Each structure stands twice: as C-alpha cells, then as structure tokens.
Amino acid sequence: MARQRHHLHVLTAEKAQVPEELLGPRTSRFPEGRNDVAVRTRQRHAAVHALLDQGRTIMQIADELQLSRNTVRRFARAADPGLLLVHGGTGKRTKDLQGCTNAQRLHAELRERGYSGAVTTVRQYLQPWRTGRLPPSSSRPLTVRQATAWFLSNPAHLDPGDQNRLGTLCGASLQLAVRRDRVREFAEMMVHRQGLRLETWMSAVAGDDLPELHSFVTGLRRDQDAVTAGFTLPYSSGPVEGHVNRIKMIKRQMYGRANPDLLRKRVLLAD
Predict the structure, then answer these.
(1) Contact predicate 144/2, CB 8 Å
(2) Whose CA is closest to 188, among 158, 156, 216, 148?
(3) Are 32 and 84 spatial neighbours (Cβ–Cβ below 8 Å)?
(4) Model confidence pLDDT, tens digit, residues 134-180
(5) What global pTM score does this model have?
(6) Is 29 helix (H, G, I), strand (E, B) or coil?
(7) CB-side exposure of 38: number of CA atoms within 13 Å?
(8) Does residue 58 contact residue 73 with C-beta atoms inside 8 Å?
C-alpha cells in the first residue's frame, strides 16, 4: 500500500463531495449521527442488546461479534445508543444556532472576550446554520494503515462504507485490484485448509506485476512442504506454544523469589 499511496487521494476527493441528498432539508437542525461511525455504533448496540436478551454472556457476545469484552460491556451498559454518540468523537452532537443570530452583535460579544477576527468571519461561520445546510466536516486523509486493514480484513466483517471505499480504491488502480484478489485467495486457503491450491496460487502470483508478492512467494517456496502441511492438516504447534508461554510467565513472576521446587509445583498446579 505504501507504494500505491498516491491513489489514496481518490477517496479524499470523494469524501469532499457531499451528495445533495445527504445535506438534508433546510431546517434548523441537521440529522444527528449521519456518518458511518454513528451507523455502525447503533447497529452494534442493537446486536449486543439482542444477544443479552437471549441470555448470552459478555464473553459469548464478544466472540460472536468479534469485539473486545470491554467494548461489549460499554455497549451493554448504555441503555440507548445516543449515550455512545455524545463523547469520544463518535457522532458528535449537532451544533444548533440558538438565541442571538445577529453576526454584528455576536462579533461585539466575542471581541469583549478577546476575539480579534473580523465580523465577516463570524458572518460566514453562521451562514450554514442559518440555512440548515452544514458544511461537510474536514476529515483526515486516508492513511496507508487504514487502507491496508481493508485489504487484510474478512470482506464479511467490513461495513458497507468501507467496502465501497475499498472498491473505489481498487477501481483507481489495477494493481490494487489484483493485490486484493490475491490476498483474499490466500486467506481462503488458510481458513478452509486448501493447501493443494497453494502451488496454483503461487504460479498465478508469479505472472502478476506485484514485486512485493513475488518476494513473499519466494519465502513460501523455501519451506513449501511445511506451508502446505500447515494449510492442509488440522494439527499445529499452537497448544505447545501456549504451554511454553504460560511457563515463561510463571517463571518471570517468581524470578528471584523462590526455588525450583516451588516453580515446579506452580507449573503443575496452574490451570
């Protein structure tokens, strides 16, 4: 993605152009939570509470929705999703223009509080709220890290907004589109243990103009038998690595405080 970062401006330009229908009617209020984060927050809040009503535990909900337990607890404690949209930048409260609407008078009051700007600046700032059509918020440009996360995520776990942005990004570059397809094919082989497809996948990558994936394939071929077995067989060294990690943690907890006999007992009795 770092090599293709010049394509990220496509999404930045697209974000700056707000469709007419999203600006809403000319009223004194702008619809709250009209952004992807707010929509996703409301959907997750509804999903968490629906599972809670079914008697699920916090841990079970976290596993099912692929969320952290702290996040699930935060959603569970909020009786209404609006409570989650007030702070922390998630769907900020709308700015209502109430009380005095006279730019000259407001400018005079601001001058008394130390404001040194011109009255024209105040008048321009008030104009969108008078017409009920707020200007689009200035958003940070898309980063390489964000775009990379879309490529490495399961498409089913991406919200519709991110899926559309990924499609727009791949539409701007044939190399990015091919890279997205190759990454998804590789993930499918890993998830569904389709090790017999590995050689076909590596041969296809060799014919693509993707230097980074070529070096990745070179690494796979150095130990292709092991990689194929890992993609095919249900066995792994995961349980062994877990026990090693547990023993190291116990050893570090006892460093300089006990003898090997007590260490042995703790290792044997630890869950």
Answers:
(1) yes
(2) 156
(3) no
(4) 555 445 667 888 889 999 998 888 888 888 888 888 888 888 899 99
(5) 0.47
(6) coil
(7) 15
(8) yes
